[in-house]
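Data availability (excerpt). The following record was deposited with the supplementary files.
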Amino acid sequence: MGQKQLFLKACAREPVERTPVWLMRQAGRYLPEYLKVRQQAGSFLNLCKTPALATEVTLQPIRRFGLDVAIMFSDILVVPEAMGMKLDFLEGEGPVFAEPLRESRDLNRLIRPKVEKKLGYVYNAIEEMRAALPSKVPLIGFAGSPWTLATYMIEGGTTKKFTHIKTALYRDPDFLHMLLGALADTVIDYLNGQIDHGAQAIQIFDTWGGILGPKNYRAFSLDYMTKIVRNLKKTGPDGERVPVILFSKGCASYSKDIATSGCDVISLDWTADAKKIRRQLGDKVAFQGNLDPAVLYAPEEVIRKEVRKTLKSFGNKPGHIFNLGHGMEPDMNPDNVQLLVEIIREESSHLLKRNSKKR
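Predicted structure:
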């Protein structure tokens, strides 16, 4: 790989000359070039399942903004589909599972997939992405957490109430644990396949962990993510360590518990007090985040002010990757993203230089 990439140095809590930056949902509908490829694909799922097109949209934000990291273009719900569930993405509604899981006997419809066969299109895309990316830009692979995947599989799609999965949690926890266990095993297989095919880091998205209280968060979400982290391959085919990032949205108060999972990086959303959490955890893990995405709607002076606040909140120790506290929105202005990246580079370089002089 040559000189170690900036992002991987930050994941390993090694000193860097500036803070690396990438953005959740950096390949998406806010980019005109993405919309053209999406139209060409015909459907969102077809875009995910066509390696050449998935590679193209993965590269678009790298070309446009010069970001330090690429994240493979896919969707977390390809895992339940590979396990036997029929998945559709409906215009205006998002993902839909026509036959959701509601009780133990429904689990008979699931399979433990051979990931090389069922998800081979993802692995082909990873290889194409690695071949096309500049050598200085590493590639992140990802999967949804078992809890987050289960919410979609039980609710049947996107929800604001979480009625069915919460009902399962309290009425039939054994059913839920069986599902979560099956998902964890499949995610382990899937992510190890991503590593074998060239993913240089892994992020686990626990989008709905924050709807759980402390005890249930550990029992129904974190314990399964911990199982995944501890069963992932530690190095890729090139012999380099593959860091693991955990992103549990709305779970800042559980950061001490998350740090025990074995992950290398904790990704924080914008509601987290990064300064407090970093003080609590010290150098046990690296951190990612945590600018409020809505800052991108603001004028330049506000963006600069908020970037400075975010950088300072993580302190002067190595081990910070700049990101949003969640993802890009379709109506965001790409020009503001370019501005954000430039400001992060400028401000983090100055801050790190000042801190090195103090030391």
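Summary of structural features: The CA atoms of residues 336 and 347 lie 16 Å apart.
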